[in-house]
Design a protein that fits this description.
Elements (H helix, E strand, L loop, with lengths): L7 H11 L3 H10 L3 H32 L9 H4 L2 H21 L7 H24 L33 H60 L21
Amino acid sequence: MAVKIPSMAKVKSLRVQTSFPPETRRRLAENDPRWSVKVILRIVTTVLAFLGMVLFAAAVSKTNMNFINLAGDGDWTDGLALAPIVLSLIYNPLILGILFFARGGKPLHPGWHVGMDLIVWGLCVPAMVFAVAGGLFWNWTAPVKDTNGNIDCQFFFINQWTKACDPVAFTIGDIEIAGIVFLFLVTISHFALFVLACIDTHKWRRANGAGKTNFELQYNGNAASDFGASDRKDPIIDVEAAPAYAE
């Protein structure tokens, strides 16, 4: 008895088709033609934010264990970057869950994304500036060898910040650089989502404004006909209905 095993292509196609109900996919396509781009951006941003959070948390922990901040409060320059990263890590999965499961594919009002994405990337910019300015990698120096070709770590602290004498500082610096890179990518992603939300908000306002004008013209035309001006024909503007965003 032969058993037919479906190919991987059919299995993947089946997974995509059954990932969301047909009604959800229909609403997504009708209300937002660019929904797939936004969803991919938010998923990618979530992964970037998670990796950035791990890196900055490791940098803060290692710095506080091995160094003392003379200004107090520990490694606050790296800790500051955790605020927008954690906010991004919470917001993106939350908004995807609301979109797909709570609302069944009906998007929220784009003004909500304008505000939230603006807050996230607006916090990322100063956090990135402080993370760069307070990085331990600025202290890295090249080793100075003695006449015998050895690196003396006790000679007037010349080699204090070299990799041979303080490898922990180099490890922390590498972690900080990686964290800053991921923070930069999160900033770019949220800025792109902010721009898309601004475009959607503009379209929503224009569509709703045109719809209001159409209603007023119809009302004025009906009122004029009640006063005996039935031969007068007011123009009716055919406009595309506004997307079904939540108020």
